[in-house]
Amino acid sequence: MSILGHGIDLVECNRIAKVLENHRRRFLDRVLTPAEQQIAKRYRNPVPFLAGRWAAKEAILKMIGTGWRGKIAWTDMEILPNELGRPCVTLSGESARIAAEKGITRMLISITHTEHQAAASAIGLSANGD
After folding, report:
1. pTM for this structure?
2. Tens of pLDDT, residues 62-118
3. Which of 5, 4, 27 has its CA nearest to residue 16?
4. Which residues of 66-82 are buried (b: 16+ CB within 10 A; e: fewer)?
């Protein structure tokens, strides 16, 4: 197994809070999948969670080497917890196509946040050791 890409991102939670104030429904539908939105509803204050997901998706785009452009959609990347709470990534659409083209078969993601900031790191791995 080889590391084919790495991305990291840091987000100020107040930036996400301001977007939510002005464009809540549009932001949620554009950035989160329906399953991610369901998880966000569990939080009394969802801003740190949402900032973490934003940072994670930015980190994934940096990991695959594209940034957000072209046919890539934020909802091409879904980050859901496994049974132990570890965030796991599922790609679809253009993001999945690009990752496959680069030989990325597995992704590791780490998300952390405080009341004020959220950060994430994404690592893309190949299965064959190339």
Report:
1. 0.92
2. 999 887 667 899 999 999 999 999 999 999 999 999 999 999 999 999 999 999 999
3. 27
4. beeeeebebbbbbbeee
CATH number assigned to the domain comprising residue 9: 3.90.470.20
Phi, psi (5° rounding) for residue 32? -110, 145
The two structure tokens encoding residue 1: 């197994």
Ordered DSSP codes for 19-86: HHHHHHHHHHHHHS-HHHHHHHTT-SS-HHHHHHHHHHHHHHHHHHT--S-TT--GGGEEEEE-TTS-
Amino acid at site 40:
A
Total domains present in the chain: 1
Contact present, 107 and 86 (Cβ < 8 Å)? no
Three-state DSSP class for 106? strand
Distance CA 24, CA 77 (A): 19
pLDDT, position 70: 76
CA 80 – CA 60 distance, rounded (Å): 14
